[in-house]
Amino acid sequence: MQVVRLASETDFAGWREAARSLRAHRIPPDETLWTVEGDDGLFAETPRAPTAEARPFRVPREFVELASAAILHRCDDRFALLYRILWRLEREPYVLRVADADGDKARDYARGVSKAVHKMKAFVRFREVAAEDDAEAYVAWFEPAHRVTEIVAPFFMGRFANMRFSLLTPDACAHWDLKDLVFTAGADPADAPKEDALEDYWRTYYASIFNPARLKVGAMQKEMPKRYWRNLPEARLIPDLIARAERRTTAMVARAPSTPSRRVMRAALRNSRDAPYDGQALTSLEAVMAGVHVCRRCDLWRDATQGVTGEGAPHARLMFVGEQPGDQEDLAGRPFVGPAGQMFDKALAEAGVPRERTYVTNAVKHFKHEPRGKRRIHKTPSTREVTACRWWLDNERRIVRPKVIVALGATAALSVTSKPVTVAKSRQQALQLSDHAQGVVTYHPSFLLRAPDPETKARAYAEFVQDLKFAWKLSG
Q1: b/e map of 29-56 (b: 16 or more CB within 10 Å)?
Q2: How far is CA 62 from CA 52, 215, 379, in A?
Q3: What's the rounded Cα separation, in Å, for the pair 13 and 77?
Q4: Is residue 269 scored above 80 in pLDDT?
Q5: What gap in Å lies between CA 474 and CA 458, rounded to an integer?
């Protein structure tokens, strides 16, 4: 039995070197034992000499990337699992591209690590502490699901480059002194700082932005599990905010809606003609909203409750364009708040794309439907309706000026690119658009809801998340 001792639980370089040596010496996985006992030498035994048939071989980059992520998982079998995959790659080069127990398990580990990275970036809260030289310093305590401290610390260094901080976790601690990022051994919860004066401001801010109308307790607790609450200053507000959400929602619905200024409404009326491109270019998203509310460019306004414009960051680098509002969007006056919106939010979170930093809108601004009993059933907009509504989308694009526009579905792709597009054939491509933005085409979230079987749904969802990651990275 060949025993391999790695320097630490996250010693990917040591694992890689050991695995390369083991593989060259033709030592099979079932004759290898992986341990972590400190940096006292790589091998407990002298490696055997290479056999006559030993020869160098290359591994795909996807395996190296997979292994570097999966090795941060807390499961004890990850070292052996990754070496077993490495051993198989020589005779089974496509093991990572087909359904396979080892490959699926490694990918599950990597996804778990990716989620842990996302949670750490989202839920770390720094507290001010007294420093020896009276300079500002901040400390945060966090307990990540996996060993991701060392790969997440540079994110906080970049975000808080002018702030001295220490990030304490049970696995490792990161310290930034404005010049160097240094790592030390893990800390104890007793080392965590107490509350500081800024936390009252943070709780006030959180309470002010809490939207009871969009509250979904299950989804919130899935995205922000209770295990993280003890480190979040706003957590003490959550039970009361949830308890009062229904009452606040009822009050919000009963309250009279706000209206754009008279000046904006007069301009909107001038731009509400039937011809597609006869209006003066708009200069604000408020003007777009006002114009959509009085739009008569096609007949869809007759049966819709209201026009639904986009929402999000006014100068987002990433814009999402859907097809049209659905039943719930038509009633709420906001895009992507129904079942497809929930699927969209879930995929965004998994892809690491913060919705609040994007702009979300639709190619067509009114809900096209037909009655079926008490329900209103979605109908696909015609090319004429998409063309008539493009004037509003073009104004949104010009005002927001995104670097990347993601078309969700074929109707959105038609509006964004001005030509018919096949979604399946256009995925994972950067399309050059006329306004110098780049376009990405992917599924509409409602397509995932309509998948005929769980296997198809899972595959389409994974591809959808992959496309969101591609677009976010492309937007740079």
Answers
A1: beebebebeeeeebeeeeeeeeeeeeee
A2: 29, 38, 42
A3: 17
A4: no
A5: 24
Write out the two tokens for 158: 């970049």
Amino acid identity at 353: V
DSSP β-bridge partners for residue 431: 439
- Contact, 336 vs 444, CB < 8 A? no
Per-domain boundaries in the chain: 2-119, 124-191, 198-254, 305-475
Which residue pairs, CB below 8 angstroms and at least 24 apart, start in 430-434?
A: 430/404, 430/474, 433/405
Q: What is the mean pLDDT of residues 309-330?
A: 93
Identify the bridge partners of residue 376 per DSSP, sorted by sequence position. 371
Residue 81: C-alpha distances to residues 12, 19, 85, 86, 368 (Å) = 14, 11, 6, 9, 52
Q: In the chain, pLDDT over 70 holds for what percent of residues?
A: 84
Per-residue pLDDT, 91? 87
CA 427 – CA 470 distance, rounded (Å): 10
Measured CA to CA, the distance from residue 364 to residue 341 in angstroms comes to 16
pLDDT digits (tens, 9 = 90+) for 333-346: 899 998 999 999 99
Residue 20 has which token pair?
A: 């390369």
Q: Which residues contact 315 (CB under 8 A, 6 or more apart)?
A: 400, 401
- Cα–Cα distance between 333 and 206 in angstroms, integer? 23
- The CATH H-level superfamily of 305-475 is Uracil-DNA glycosylase-like domain (3.40.470.10)
Helix (H) or strand (E) holding 407: strand 404-408
Per DSSP, 214 falls in state: G
